[in-house]
Amino acid sequence: MAIETMAPLEASGDPATGPSLPDLNAETYPFEAVLQLLDQAAYLNTFSVPGRPAASAGGRSSALEIDESLHRFVVHMDDPSKEGGLRASNRVGERVGRFRHRWMIIPDDFVATPDRVPPAIPLDPARSQRFVMLDGRCEFGDKDSFRGFGTGRTFPMTVGGRSQLFVATVGTIIEGSGRFQGRDGTYTHCGALDAQRGFVGNLLVRVMDPEGRIHGHGSMGSLQALADPDPDVTYLVFRGQKRDKKQKTAFLFGADGQPAGLDVEQQLRLVDLDFSSRTSRGLRSTIRVGPVVGTMKARILFNLLSPGAPGKSLAPIPFLSYNRYSFFDRNGCAIGGFEADSLEGRTFLLRLAGAPRQAALRFGGFGPLLNGTGKFAGIQGLMTDNSVVGIAPHAIVTLYVLRVPDPDGRFRATVHGLGDC
Question: Does a cis peptide bond (omega within 30 degrees of 0) precede residue 393?
């Protein structure tokens, strides 16, 4: 079993009135040190295609056996410009792993756990439905694997006059072996579902890696490029982080005076991710962080002191958020923006290596893109959010993945060479 994340939130108060809230911006450890600890993570960014058909029961099956063939996936973001907006090249490469699990439709109010089988509810492609991901096993090579559990939601959308069923998920590692042994991690899916064929899209695994078992430096080797499995879609990936310790974060409170969430602002940065399971050292990942290209403001709704969901792997704290993204070019000129309504998210307590008194959290969430302006006018699609956060001091590192229907190549950049990444 993975190490259970028990980092204390250090709330205090009179038992008669309940706990008081921690000072979000106080420095239990220096802000820069906490940010560095949050960055001790490996990012496994993959493109998933069906390894075999999802189900034999037809389009209204209540349980889909999802078998994902995972491939190396490199998304390179160009600098935003007033002329071109925000563009990315997408390259799908060699097979690097496999993820098998059972996806079952669940009622909106169903409390999912790994050992709880939901009632049989058929998939309805015409409406948004929640689902649970059971019996998950993800493998990268012969030795590195993990068991996972999570939930997701379907999003029916009409693109170019054609109905499509988009899906997004958030899951957590509950037990790992090899390089995943004892590691905390969150994974998100962002793609499309066909009840007979299976899932096609992005899987991003973020695993805390303080010892550098996976993340590092150097070349991943030449990408063995394949034909694009999703040519009418562009994936955009960027990083969010708090600017510095001078940027304060505030609590939000509900009408009853209880803590309701956080008011958060982030910088948005370009980022390049790459990983392979076929290097001379086995499973390895790299990350390169680029310049600031925008800002994000969010209202994140969750109860940090939730007694019914203490934030453990199998009892996460639920959250909702509404995010507003704004982008600018290298001269600081606005190029537009959009919003994302994160309709479902999960929060897990996190222990940071070397900082036993530091409260920290893992977040994973998803939702549709809305209200595009400027170069993003008319944008459709989904956003996934895979974050780690420190509390007191409040530091945050986020990876956003956008899946944008893009038949005209509006967000697609030219691939510059196919050599090492």
Answer: yes
